[in-house]
Amino acid sequence: AQSVTQLGSHVSVSEGALVLLRCNYSSSVPPYLFWYVQYPNQGLQLLLKYTSAATLVKGINGFEAEFKKSETSFHLTKPSAHMSDAAEYFCAVTSGGSNYKLTFGKGTLLTVNP
Amino acid sequence: NAGVMQNPRHLVRRRGQEARLRCSPMKGHSHVYWYRQLPEEGLKFMVYLQKENIIDESGMPKERFSAEFPKEGPSILRIQQVVRGDSAAYFCASSFVEGAGNTIYFGEGSWLTVV
Question: Which residues of B lie closer than 8 Å to A, measured between beta carbons?
Fold first, then answer.
């Protein structure tokens, strides 16, 4: 069985500050990992994904994430927060050769203060 | 290229009524998935369909819920005799192929409220 834990249901940063959203996973087989962003009353947009290639993955809107197998982590970062980054962020994992049965974390709500 | 289209975006039903949610996948995509997002929770997989076939329905509640993806037309998620606990956001997603690492694209969701 696979699972995802997102530490911190709510993260608040100042505009221009570093964004760090934490994600730890468990999987019995090599995982594929994803970060999605959800703006209010909208669907999920893929930010980036890890599929066993480079461990540092760059995504859209200046976000990146690093896969650390030893720590079973896939934390999302952005050097400088922008007001438009305020949204809910979901980490997800899938494994076993399937891409559709994503297991999502409960999400982290990011607030950006002026 | 239009994305995954869902309708209605918002639906209000009284307890005991039926809810039908529709999903048109992205052009060229033949794999459709439904997920449900309960309040303050992450999305949970419900069902995976290809044209005229249910591939995996392991996440579907045993009763009242059904899904189809006919040869022609959108995929339909049907909830019979809705109860308050069915109030949630239902997301449809699609992909071109099914396989590890291939991206699935989500629609904007259908928010069901049961009163």
Answer: 4, 6, 31, 33, 35, 40-45, 48, 56, 91, 93, 95, 98-109, 111
